[in-house]
Specification:
The chain has about 130 residues and is α/β, with parallel strands linked by helices. The protein has one domain: Winged helix-like DNA-binding domain superfamily/Winged helix DNA-binding domain (Arc Repressor Mutant, subunit A), CATH 1.10.10. The chain is about 45% helix and about 15% strand. The strands form 2 sheets. The protein has a 3-stranded parallel sheet. Strands 3-4 form a two-stranded antiparallel sheet. Strand 3 and strand 4 form a beta hairpin. Helix 4 packs across helix 5 (about 85-95). The chain is flat, with a radius of gyration of 17 Å.
Length: about 130
């Protein structure tokens, strides 16, 4: 189980070089015996891909888990007033994308205090 007080970064259109720079800085800190700032991030090629994973109903699901703590999928479905099968599918998808997690008892929970969405705009063309 992850500790609280962490941030999940969702980035759209971030160049690979930015990810490599973060990894390089973490490895450098480790070689020097320093602890690196934890970074949890998921990258998306475009905003459509982000919105296909993080739908309004899934944002609501994350919010209910954040407020209510770890719970069964059945309890989560009851609180959301949604069909169990659909909530279960949303949970599976959000676990795949690291937005929620399952504990050793099978309860789902939202481990992050904050989710930051960062969308890079395309470079401006020269006139």
């Amino acid at each position: 189980m992850k500790t609280d007080n962490t941030v999940l970064h969702l980035t759209v259109g971030e160049p690979v070089s930015a990810s490599l720079a973060r990894a390089s800085a973490a490895m450098k800190a480790a070689r020097q015996g320093k602890s690196a700032q934890p970074y949890f991030g998921v990258g998306f090629d475009d905003v459509g891909e982000l919105f296909s994973v993080f739908t309004p109903k899934r944002w609501e699901l994350i919010g209910v888990l954040r407020e209510g703590g770890a719970m069964t999928v059945a309890e989560l479905a009851r609180q959301l007033k949604r069909d169990y099968k659909n909530v279960y599918g949303d949970c599976v998808r959000l676990v795949e994308w690291m937005a929620i997690e399952k504990d050793e008892n099978g309860l789902v929970y939202a481990p992050y205090d904050e989710i930051v969405v960062d969308m890079k705009l395309p470079d401006r063309r020269a006139a």
